[in-house]
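agent> fetching stored inputs for the flavin-adenine dinucleotide docking request
agent> found them:
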Amino acid sequence: MAPCTYCGFCEKFGCGNYSKASAQTTILPVLMQKKSFTLRTESEVTKINVDASGKRATGVTYVDAHGEEFEQPAELVVVCAYITHNVHLLMTSGIGTMYDPATGQGTLGKNYCYQLTPSVNIFFDDKLLNPFVGAGALGMVVDDWNGDNFDHTGLGFIHGGYIAAYMTTGRPIETELLPEGTPKWGAKWKKAFVENYLTSMSVSLMGAVMPNKANYLDLDPTYRDVYGRPLMRMTYDFKQNELKMQDFTVGKMVEIAQAMKPREIKKSLRGPHYDIDPYQSTHNTGGAIMGVNPRESVVNRYLQHWDVPNLFVVGASAFAHNSGYNPTGTVSALALWSAQAIRDQYLKHPGPLVSA
Ligand SMILES: Cc1cc2nc3c(=O)[nH]c(=O)nc-3n(C[C@H](O)[C@H](O)[C@H](O)COP(=O)(O)OP(=O)(O)OC[C@H]3O[C@@H](n4cnc5c(N)ncnc54)[C@H](O)[C@@H]3O)c2cc1C
Ligand code: SF4
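agent> prediction call returned; pasting tokens
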């Protein structure tokens, strides 16, 4: 791979410099060499098929770019379509028992968690920063108020988050740190934008969110997708645990900001209610969680479906809660863990790897 040039277009873009590791640059080129491997691009799986007993996956149905539908038979199905799509595919395929928030019964859709990501924006008169020269991995993190790294006595919440300063992008408009009282458009907005673009930064939190029985995923009773399947519905709001955690950690973030002796500090808080605006995080978790028994979870510790042993569901859908870290390292580790179990255990003795 080529050395990173800190181009400033890391987050949300493919790397034109071939410096970023992703499935496209690492795994797929190796798989493409194998005669036994076929990659069907521009195809969308619409259903996981099961036999009459409902205990065995028989393959998947997919639609190609021309809208033609195919049935692909399979001895083993691994669903790895991203957390929300994993859960939606299981739901629309009728695999598993839907979670009912009224009774607490059922497992599919429960423990949906998000993250809480407040920030503190910092404005200087005497420091010049260049937000445009950024890279995904360029940053500083304070992990002292995450997880169990500190004494929570009397604080009224569990868990925490990491506090970070990073510059993954300096794209104008998206990188819009403006002092208190700036109008949202017009000449005064433009003037404030120009004056502050090179002299501002932010410190943000990757705050954990614990599961709550009222936060869950299910199927929408009204809206349908292009294939006629119900859309997935998210029922979600921030709860007291994370709002208290926000108050505490933002206090620490303000202390860090003040130590930099800025002209102005502006808090950007989340809540009290969840809102899809502004962009906060793409770290969704849960809905098909792993656990020790089928009464409380959808998959076992190897991400094997409790009801359908030849079906594995890989991704952050397996997380029982959302911790104060970025998820993809754990998603990757779980994928390796699951793949190893499939290769070393399941393929030798197909069947449940954990007894229910
Ligand atoms: C803008 C952005 C920034 C992020 N930054 C970070 C970060 O800094 N750190 C971090 O840890 N995480 C980050 N994430 C989260 C990270 O991208 C996910 O955790 C990770 O990609 C999840 O991996 P996955 O394999 O489960 O799903 P994905 O990487 O989403 O892969 C799923 C694949 O399945 C395909 N697919 C979906 N449905 C179907 C279907 N029905 N049929 C066929 N194919 C299907 C999709 O096209 C996709 O290729 C970020 C995400 C976004 C969007
Ligand atoms: S900053 Fe990101 S996108 Fe830009 S060269 Fe480096 S790895 Fe590639």
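agent> quick read of the result: The two ends are 45 Å apart (CA to CA).
agent> awaiting further instructions
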